[in-house]
Amino acid sequence: MTRTVKATAADAGAAEEPAVNAAMIVFDKLPLSDTCWSLLTGPDDRIYAAACTEHTGGVSAYLLRYTPAEELGKGKLEYLFDIGDAVGEPAHNGRATQCKVHYCFLADPDTGILYGATHLSGGPRGEPGYSWFGSWHEPHRSFLGSFLFAFDTRSDRILWTDMCYPWEGSRCMALDHRRGLIHGVAFPRSHYFVYDLERRCHTDYGRTGSVNPQAIWLDSRFNAYTTDDFGNVLRFNADRQRLERLEIRLPCAAHSDGWHNVVYDVVEDPRDPDVVYGIPWNLPARLFRYRMDPSGGVGEMADLGPALPGQPYKETATFFSDHVGGLVFGQDGWLYYCVSDMVREVWDVVSDRRCLLMRMDPATGRTEKIGLLKFGDFRAAYVARSGITSGGRILMGDVINHPSRLYEYQPPTSPDRPTAAVPLRRWG
């Protein structure tokens, strides 16, 4: 039975923001799961999530599906399959596990197929962790590689599986369903690769840098984009089959040289497939709008300012304590996202956690705090990805909790903001 918890007015503290009117959906059947990095609206308009287990050895990722109901938190949660078993790498085989899917769910609107690719970090059974470089030449314990699976959402069948990149994990992906290509970045060596779905093989296009970018996105002609270590935009030219660096970069703080300004999350503007909104993985995180030029130009980059205006500088801040993710457009045209605003990394100190749900009006750049993701005594700390259904329901994937979980939110309707359809996300 799915355990859900709804936030109430009593959850709001006198000296802090109110709790968001949302529901929490806990993966009770997977008690060792600790993260949900990948969450995507499928081609069937249902939410697919990966229950990942990074911090316990010998456990694979699991594919789940959630279908919202009229009441928040009362939808149908399905446990579909163990991903390690599905790809032929069971968690008890003594190797580093197929423990997670990391920004590598992809939805094909034409075929109804959901693709997913595995990532590394979980240790072999009985071991608390895994050193990918330390075990690189270990023939029996090392991570075998990233496996791709094709799941038919219409028949609920796994159609096929294949290793898409050997010895490394897949950090992020995007799907060019017209050409039958999947763009990816491998971890830990940050190689950009393209997997051909018809030929079932990949082509390597070299390193993007030393810090993994966390997203790949597409323009209207299915050219693919990501960034290097300093936030310089890289474009894979679909016609020339070439990876090129553009003379344009993501915004960063004036005191920074831009290192670690890799892209973290990107979402398509519902009104224009050649415009995206995004956030880098840096301190402090600044929202950006990027108007791409599919004809070959560099495009236009706009700095939209800090994701959390007025946030004071903290010497204890890290890429996790001040994290921003879960970008998704609502049907009301607002850009919704989640901000971790904590004094330090407090994964185990629940009372010190702060994860704010926020939104920005793209027309004016104005941001608003909606409230804290707080449910009774439980507080969220970190959201990586979000998705939205055709009914306007927003689902957010939680990170660092046992078991892992989702948060479900319904933005209020407003007569002065008519609802509009949100396109199916084309990347992880």
What does this structure look like?
The chain is mainly β. It has one domain (3-409): YVTN repeat-like/Quinoprotein amine dehydrogenase (Methylamine Dehydrogenase, Chain H). It contains one helix and 31 strands. It has one helix at residues 83-86; strands spanning 3-6, 22-26, 39-41, 47-51, 62-67, 76-82, 105-107, 113-117, 145-152, 157-166, 169-176, 181-187, 191-196, 201-207, 217-218, 224-227, 232-237, 242-249, 263-269, 272-280, 286-291, 300-306, 324-329, 335-340, 355-360, 367-372, 374-375, 378-379, 383-388, 394-398, 405-409. The longest helix is centred in the first third of the chain and has 4 residues, at 83-86. Residues 8-14 have low confidence and may be disordered.
